Structures are given as structure tokens and as C-alpha cells.
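Thread: Modeling a multi-component assembly for a lab meeting

Hi all, long-time lurker, first post. My supervisor asked me to bring a structural picture of a complex we are working on to next week's group meeting, and I have zero experience with this. I have the sequence lines for every component (944 residues in total). Could someone generate the structure of the whole assembly? Inputs are pasted exactly as I received them:
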Amino acid sequence: MPPILEVKNLVTKFHAIDGIVNAVNGVTFTLEEGETLAIVGESGSGKSVSMMSILGLLPSPPAKIEGGEAIFHSEKGAVDLLKLPYDEISNVRGGRIGFIFQDPGTSLNPILTVGEQITESLTRHLGLDSQQARRRAIDLLADVGIPDPELRFSAYPFQLSGGMRQRVMIAIAVACSPSIVIADEPTTALDVTIQAQIVSLFKELRKRMGVSTIWITHDLGLVAGLADRVLVMYAGRIMESALVDDLYENPQHPYTVGLLGALPRLDTDETRRLVSIDGTPPDSTIPIQHCPFAWRCPHAFERCWREIPDLMDVEKNHQAACFAVSGKGG
Amino acid sequence: MLKYTLTKVTQSLLLALGVLILAFFMVRMTGDPATLMMSRNATPEAVEAFREAMGFNRPVIVQFWDWITKAFTGDFGNSLHFREPALKLVLQRLPATLQLASVGLLMAVVVGVPLGLVAGFKSGSWFDYLSRLLALGGQSIPNFWLGLILLLVFAQRLGWFPVFGNDEPNSVVLPAFVLSLPVMGELLRLTRSAALEVRGEDFVRTAVSKGLKRYTIYTKHVLRNVAISLISVIGVEFGYMMGGSIYIETVYAWPGMGQMVGMALGWRDFPLVQTLVVFTSIVVLSLNLLTDLVYALIDPRIRHGR
Amino acid sequence: MADNPTLHGADSRLEEKVTFKEQAAFVGRLLWRDRTGIIGILIFISIVFAAVFADGLTAYEPLDQDLSASKLPPAWEEGGAPEHPLGTDNLGRDMLSRLIYGARVSLGVSFFGALIAAAIGVFLGATAAYVGGRLDDLIMAPVNLVLSLPYLLFVVFVASVLGKSLLNVILIFGITNSPIFARVTRGEVLRIRESAYVESAMSAGARWWRVLLIHIMPNLVGPLVTLISFQISAMIFYEAGLGFIGLSVPPTIPSWGNMLAEGRKYIASYPWLTTWPGLAIVYTSLGMNLLGDWLRDISDPRVRRARR
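Re: Modeling a multi-component assembly
Sure thing. I ran the full set together rather than chain by chain. Output:
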């Protein structure tokens, strides 16, 4: 069975007044049907930009997708999302691939009711009339755990709390039963307690609908209970790709090791200093021809400064973009 | 919503009071209103007689109280030139100015807003630069001068429009156009920046991610939000046109309140000037109040009392 | 830790200090990008030049009447004379000279008017914002009153009460335009005062006047200079308008407004009497508006912070 989404060599740049920002520098991965893929990285690593590029959600004067493919496999066949004209990709957006944004406060239209913002997706993709759409929207609101859904249907976003707004965003994203849902840090803007609720809601919906998911986050702790597979991104590239348990037990890339070392843990009873990684991420406006992590890497050697490492197999189903660990020298 | 309405109404009433106070003191700025209103050749006796007749020799507090209480009943005294109640004369002139301002506003909105929208959506294009240039031009040309030029060219030389007055249906075209030009420019610029701003908002991105058609995104999400920001501006601009038509009405001999101001100043008929100023200010204040209330009605955030 | 010497990306942004030369080059690049800004500056300079060096630039005194040469058309038209390149007015005064001298009045009135308005307004606005509370309400009440009224009417009213004089005009403009400066200043000061870095400065024990000087004032410069530019443009209009109905400076002083008023009677037969002062106003106003637009663009912090 082919993967439901195949991204190959995605390159996205921002042409700004003061220079070109190389946000995504050749990202390649696949999403299998039914799996939950987590993409982890710090701010500026390109995780959000790469996902938004796939659906063409970046503002097009500054942003430009300069290479790559994003093959979406549906019953209708395989299609490269990056090459679709507006009319066709707008069918995919919302209908086949749903997107959940990070900040529910600004991502909802303040002058439309919450219900309207769900029904417009339903009428657009499922062709429901207003009665049917309204009923389905109320059901969706109930599904995402919003109390009194009939009342809340006519509520405006400002009348709801942050957690409730994010539930509405989830309802919007899953309204048309898409095959893929991409969630861009959906809990970052919320309280920790609400975070947990949203995550469990998500897991429930996922089980019920069998949807393939991409979950973007900078929070490694969140990933553990949620994802099947993890991608670690840094400086617009994928540094490591592994099944979630493998990543935690056997991290390969020095960056991942550093990230995990920086996590406070409950299961060690020594008082251990949190190890942080020296240095800061590279300037994304300056193109480089070597490993982007080289400056901060304790294992960097001369090959690391000459070439850019690709993702290479380290073990079964576990890859890292590193010369040092893939046994290719050093 | 109720609280909002009450607050705004109270504010407006206070402002109206402020206007009355200002007008009262403005004629007394040079000290003696009598010498101000009488011509320079008047004899001291005539001035004194005038002063008594108008009650300017009473203590200021008494005059002030008299002024305020009479104002509430609509009694602003008599015009010196016409010897008739000033307010009545002003009201006679109101319809003409109202007509001029309305047509002008219509022109400004019909031209300025669509151009601004297109400029905002296609920012950076030649259309954008051209329309911004036009807007700038509209705001850099003194309206009275433009009025004269247009009068000369289109009315006098080409004979397309009447040279003065408001007798014919197309006599409103030239003065309304000149009046509308700076407003047109302002609306274009504001619409453009509102369109740009809304375009970049997160909820527009959400709308795109839902796969909505372009048309829906523009009308339902972008335009509606732009319209809300424009409402208050349009109301204010209408007020500006009601209060700022002095020169244009003078140039085109348009029988409105603005022309009367010019004439009254020439006659040094200060009671009439005062009345005109107070009345026009109150009209402008009422328009602002109306705009605020309409805005509250259409923005759900205010309507549902936050 | 790798010891590659070219620590290019990692920490360089933190260590770079911007030299004055770099800043000047940056402004230059901005100017080039927004060429209309250059036009604005050039126009502004040309007007100031004309106003300051009026004596040297003109061949005639603006008040010299020569009735034998009255109502001459511009030199390129039939009947014109080369020594009066823009023609003469109804009293035989040379148009070009009057135009150049008129720049003095227009510029002087608007420049000083704007300065006075800024001085009063900034003081009031900053005080209202900084002290807050009752004083804020007290100051802003009349400010908001003036701002919501039909400006032109009141100015015309006051001008007619006070009478024609250069000083009166400057004072009227200065006082009646101070509210807009007060409101803008108050808004900016409030915004900056709430911002995190002022809070941290104050919690670190900085004294209030230091906070004012170092943190708040520099942020005011941008919006204020922009506003002054637009106000100058507006005041040139107002002066011309007042002159148009005879309420500006006395007729003995040549101002573009006065010229328009005088020329109005002859517009049908001698249109250039009003054309030249009108064009002069358009020219200057356009320049100030362009300048204001450019200033507003560069004082936008997003543009300023981009350093490459």
C-alpha cells in the first residue's frame, strides 16, 4: 500500500527586503496511511513552513516554493499538490486534507459565528444545504466536546475560551472527514491543563475516524504519548527520522541527543544537570554547504564541514542525517 | 450595547455643550463683542447703544447663562444683517449643503473604495501605484483652486455645467466632485491599507485552508472586515464635508450654509456666524454619534457587550 | 566544540554593532528604494531655498506696481514680455517675484505654526499620558472636543475675530492644530510606557526623566516628524484658504492665498493670475505629502530593524 503522502526535496524560500530566507532546504519524508507522524523542531526549524508549503498556505509574494514534490495518494490517484492550480487544490484543502493552526485566537474570523465557520466548509466540500450543514456542525461541536453545542453554534469566537476555540478549529479541520489532518502546534498557545484535554480529544477522534495525522510541535514530551513516528527538523532539514520508541531509547543524531538531554525526566533519581546545547541555530539567510549543526556538534569532524549529510540509514526504520553516526567516517 | 449607547450619547451632549461654550467665548476673544460686530466707522454712541441692545454690558456670567439656556430652545438671536432669527436662516440653508455633501460622499465612496480594494489586493502592481498617486494628487490640490479651474474650463469655456447656483440638476456635479476629491483620496488609501491588513490576517489563512473559493474568501471574510473599519471613516468624512464646504459653496455660488458663512463674515454679522458654527458643529457631532452607533450594531464584538 | 573560525551564522547577529556609516548607507538605500521620498525631499529643499534666498532670486520687489505693464500674460504667450516670465498681475506686479516671496509666507506660517502646534501638543500629550488619571482626562477633554469639530469653520471664525496679521495666523494654526499632536503623542507615550522594556528599565531603578529621555523620546521622533510634515502641507492649504476669503495676512504681504483671492476676479480673462499660485501650492503640498509618506515608511520599526 503506498503511503498517503510523499514529500520529496521540498525547498521553500522567503524573498524578503533584506535577503532570502532559506526556510526549508530539501525535506523528504512519507506519511503512511493511518499513522501519526510528529515533526519536532525549535522555532525557525522550518517545520510549520514545510507543512504550509504543501497546501500552499504561505503568502505568495515573499514565500516561494522553489523545488520538490508533494504527492498525495487518494482514491482518485496520485497528484502533486505543489503543481495544482487554485481551483483544484482548494478541493483538497479542507476536503481531503485538514489543517489546524496554532493560535485559535487569531485564526477564527471574529465577525462570523463559530457555526458559520464550520458550515461554510461543509457546504463547500460536501454540498450540504444549510439545514443539513447546521445539524452536522452541531454534531461536530458535540464530538469535539463543546457543551451546549446548539447554543454555541451561534456564538462568536470572542465569546469562547481559548480551549474551546481550539476545539472549534479541530471541528473545522475534521468536518469533511479528510484523509490527512495536519496540526501545527495546536496546543502551544493553550494552558497545560487544556493541552492535555486537546491531546486526548485528538487521540479519540483519530481512533474514530482513522485519519492520518501530522503533528507539529516543539515539545518532545508531547510526542511520546501521541505519535507513531517522529521527524526531527533543524535549520530547514530533517535530521532524524525514527519510530517514537526508537527515538527516545536510541537517539542517533547529536542534535536529538542534545534535545533529549535537555529534557527534565522523572525516571532518573539522581540530580542531574540539564544539558543545553551550546550556540544558536544558523542564520537562515546565509546558504551553507556543510552540515548545519556542525558548529554546535561535539562530534563534528572534517567531512561535516565539506558536505551536507543526507538522511542515511542507521538501523531498520531509523535514519539520521549525520556522517558521524552513520558509520561513514570518523 | 445599551451601556455603549448611553456612554456615547452622553459624550456627544457634553461635546455639544463644549461647542456652545467655545462659541460664546470666541466672539469675546478681543474683549468687547460690540466693537467687534460694529463697523469701524461707528460712533461711540452707536456702539454703546448696540452694546445695550445686545446685552453685552451685563456681567459675563449672566450673558453666558442666557446664551446657554436660550440655545437649548433654539434661540440664537437675530442676524444683524437680516434682522431675523439666525437659526431659521441657517435651517433654510441646510438642505442645499446636505445635498452637496451627500452627492460628494457618494462620489467619494463609489470611486475611492473599489479602487482602494483593488489596490490593496494587487499591492505592488502598477494599478496600485497609479491609484496611490491619484489619491495623493487629490489630497495635494487645494479644493477652492481646483473649483475655480474646473469652473473655468467646464462651465465657462465648455458650457457643460451651469456657472453658478443650484437651479439645474447637473449643477451639483462640479462642486460635489471638488468637495469629494480629498475624501476620495483618503478613502482609497484607507481601504487599501485595510484590505492589505485583513488579507494578512490569520483567519484569512484559515479560510484558504478550508478550501473555500476565492470569491467567498474575498466577500465573506475580507470585505466584511474591511467594511467594518470603513464605516466609521465614512461617517466622519461625511461630517467633514458638511462642515468644510465654505470655499466650494462660495466659488460655485451654492446657496448652502457654507456660502452663508462667507457672506456673514463679510458683513461682520457675528451672531449669524456664531449660529452657523454652532449648528454645523452639532450636525457633525450628531453624525459622529450616528456612525458610532451604526458601527456598534454591525460589529458583533460590541453588539454582544464585551 | 568545533573550532571553525568563521562563526558566521551562529552568534554574529548579537555581536554586530551598527556604525553610523552603515546607518547612513541604510537610509540612502531606503531613499533609493522609495524614490518618491527623494522627490519629496527635493521639493522641500527647493521651496526652502526659494524662501530663504528670495531676494537674490527675484528681479522685482513683490510690491512694485507698474500699471503700464499690468495684466501681462506669461512670456511665452502673445503679448508677454521676457522680463516678466510668468506675467504680471492686475497692479503690474511681477508674478514670479510674488510667487517666490509668497513661499516665505506659506512656508513660514506653516513651519512655525507646525512647530508651535508640536510644542504645545507634545507637551500636553506626553504629560497626559505619563501622569495619567484625572490630569489625563482634564487635558484630553478639550483636545477631543477640538478634534471632533469642523476645523475649518472654527479657524475661519477665529481668524475673522482676530483680524489679519501674520502673527495671528501663525498663532491660530499653532494652537488649533496642537490637539492632533497631543493625541498622537499621548498614544505613543502610552504604548511605549506599557511596553516591556520600559517596565524593565523602571524596575531596574531608572529615574523617570531618564526613562523619558532615553526610552520614550527616541520612539516619538518618527511619528512626530511624519506628522509635522503632513501638518505643514495642511497649513499651507489653510493659509491659502484663509487668504482666499481675505482672512490671512494683510494684502501688503504677498502670500499665495492673497494672490489667489486677487486673481479670482479676473479668472475668466486672465486665468494665469490664479494658475501660478495654485500650482505653487500643489507643488509644495505634494512635496510635503511625499516627504511625510516616506518619513512614515522609514519610521516604521519593522523597516528600521531590518539591517541588511
